[in-house]
Amino acid sequence: MKSMAKMKYHYGLKMRCYPSDQQKQLIKINSDASRFIYNEMVAIGKELIQLRRVKLPIDTVQDRIKQLTMRQNAKQMSNHYQFLEDKRIDSLAKANAIQNYRKAWNAFRKVHTAGVPKFHRKSYRWRYQTNCQYPGQKTALLTNGTVCFLDNSHVKVPKIGLLRVAGSQARLLKRMCETRIGTVTLTKDPADHFFLSMQLASDKPFVKESKTNHGHIGIDLNTNNFLTDSEGNTVPNPQHYRTITGKLAKEQRIIFPRQRRAKKEHCSLRDSKNYQKQRLLVAKLHAKVMNQRHNFLQQISTALIKNHDLVVAEELRSKNMLKNHALALSISDVGWRSFLGMLAYKADLYGRQFITISPRNTTQTCHNCGFVMGTNGTDKLTLADRKWTCPNCGNYNERDYNAAKNILKKILAIYNSYKFYMVRWGTP
User: Chain-centre distance of CA 226, in angstroms?
Assistant: First the structure.
């Protein structure tokens, strides 16, 4: 049986699930155990760093290092902390917590952007991971593992039992080819919604690849309209967060007095029913905005990838752009970073191409003649200049449409130069 890594195609499936009260308790227990083990690994790592700085051969220090090193696996940690031997805790959840800690260190060593692994705080969000195994099976299917579908609406999960789910898995269950389930994640968001996520792998594609030539398109992302493409089409910015700001502010004005009252009465916020009721209401409003934005981005990205062979967008540094406090709220609301990520993985899924290029001078350059504003004694365009006339050729340009044309033009110029090189000089 092939492993997940050796299979050609990979797919992520996320479903809403509806656990019973007993199942919610089991999810909470496994989530707490997973968080405890991760935090224990962080604490062990911090202590080992300090102890290894002692260069003198002190027996006490060396013994302590040996003890901590041995504890860095699920079995030894369970022996040390007896409550981890609880039969309700999934053994694979413990192993995944340790693996996630090591992945965090590997990511830090390779990228150096997220920082070293830190303690996970207790929150209203629950999460733990397990794995699907196929003991004694010759072929991996969606219906014969330790995590498996019983029908379109029910999934069997170790320690949890039978979970009722809702989602788009009916299409996947019709597949007769080998499809392996990898990591399985159970989560609860602050709005008390539960989700079941699966990593799937197969040697056959999960979607049908269209061979039809649909042409090329460049897109310019902006805050006035969500995007403008090189064909002159615009997608309006729905502004999901701004439409609900008033209602959200009203509910948040209620939650803070309840928080102060609970603290004044020396009552834990988790035990304060009034505070929890209002917190849940605010969390549901945030979840509604997130779901609306996510649904909008999914629809637009799928339409672009399905209808075009090549999609070109500008590289965006959202982290740097958010430093502009005047535009930070608008930039966060549109979700550009998520949108570009969706385009990237959907291009692989549907057999298309998605490329990002540097946005340098895409706005300042006339797509008709190539003249760059800010040169030859001309002034650069500002954010207020939405329409302008080229001083060189007299072409009338709309800012966003002109930028989208230049974005596509840039990548086509690179393609044409590469084809010329290949024709003249052959394969390098």
Answer: 20
Clarify whether 398 is annotated catalytic: no
Residues 33 and 244: their CA atoms lie apart, in Å, by: 37
Can you tell me the distance from the alpha carbon of 347 to that of 302, in angstroms, rounded to the nearest whole number? 9
Report how far apart the first and last C-alpha atoms of the chain are (Å, whole number).
39
CA dihedral 354, 359, 365, 368 (to 10 degrees): 0
Q: Which of 90, 220, 229, 309 is catalytic?
A: 220
The Cα–Cα gap between 298 and 317 comes to 21
> Catalytic one among 90, 309, 333, 400?
400
Domain ranges of the chain: 9-202, 216-357
Tokens matching residue 335: 């979700």
pLDDT along the chain (428 residues), means of 10: 87 94 96 96 93 84 90 90 94 95 90 82 94 91 92 94 88 87 95 95 85 81 85 88 88 88 86 89 92 93 91 78 64 82 91 88 88 87 86 88 90 65 45
Per the CB < 8 A criterion, the answer to whether 397 and 367 are in contact is yes
**314 is a catalytic site residue:** yes
Catalytic residue, candidates 90, 229, 309, 314: 314
The pTM of this model reads 0.84
